[in-house]
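=== RUN LOG ===
request id: a7f3
mode: sequence -> structure
chains: 1
length: 67
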Amino acid sequence: MIDGHADDGTPEAIYVEGAPGFTLAVQWHPEYRASQDPVSRPLFEAFGVAARAWADGKRPQPVLKAG
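=== RESULT ===
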């Protein structure tokens, strides 16, 4: 599912609805200044939660789309 678009209409954020684990694709560099970026920071936080769950042998819970 497309979750975000650039001003020119280009899809920039895509996720897989119903995926059994963490899935997300972005068309920008979320690592650039991620700690200050209000869009990128939550991506890394969600990834960290999913990675910790996976390491603990648990299936990561789906990230619910806001709004």
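=== NOTES ===
The beta strands are 2-5, 11-14, 25-26.
The chain has one domain: 2-55.
=== END ===
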